Sequence to fold (291 residues):
Amino acid sequence: MNISQREAGEALDAIQAADQRVMQMRSYRYMGPFLILWGVIWAIANAITDFSGAAGGRRAWSIATVVGIAATLWLVVRIIIERRKAGDSPACRRRIGNRFTMMGIAVWLYFPAMYLVLGPLTGRQTNAFISLFWAFAYMVAGAWLGMRLFLIGLVTAVAITAGFLFVHQHYPLWMAVFGGGSLILGGLWLRKI
Amino acid sequence: MSAGPDEVIHQSTRLRIVSSLNALGAREMMDFGQLKAVLEITDGNLATHLAALEKAGYVQISKDFVGKKPRTRVALTAQGRRALRDHVTYLRSVLEGI
Fold:
């Protein structure tokens, strides 16, 4: 059996493509629950803000953020345990852990830094600002991980911006339905592979 | 110079099957349906190629039930990982004209 240089190149490309496809599938499977979690939190906290006013909204967001972070950490630990059971090397698991840690640090530093730069924001601006950050983060992640994630970010960003520009009285409710809703549906779509 | 090509693995569908399974962890298995979705091929085509790979000792096929639903899962054996590694070494040597 003789293999030409062209055939060898095509075979190596096929190997790389198969590897990337499995990585994409795995990323989608792992990202789905995060999107559903934060979609639910987003929907509930925004709905409470719309129905109970600013004070109730602040309390709802404080509780929702703590619950969301705790649940996020639980999901991260679950992934690390699953990868250990799957037989990933300790170095590979460390890499996953380090990535999540660095991502967490970047996010926690970004928001206070931006608040310092932008000055005091209204509740409406804060809501749009934080939500847009995540929508665009999904788009950037999607550029590396796959089109589905990119589209989820794009739809969410459009919904947030359109609501900010055109919906005045019930903006939190708009965010609950379209912001939270797009994340929940997006998370379910990611898992459907 | 590396050893020659692996004729079982080099067939394009089998190469994609083995490469996909190689991306999993050492103790990880892939569901038949998931593998079919990844490769975008028919049940019959996948089953035929898996049988050839199993005969060569490159994959391990495990069948069980989840509740009342039958489940087929596939994993790459250590021999399969070695064979793919050697085949990739060979392909690189061809590409570099060694």
In short: Chain B has a mean pLDDT of 91. Residues 44 and 50 of chain B are 10 Å apart (CA to CA). The two ends of chain B are 7 Å apart (CA to CA). The beta strands of chain B are 30-31, 59-66, 69-76.
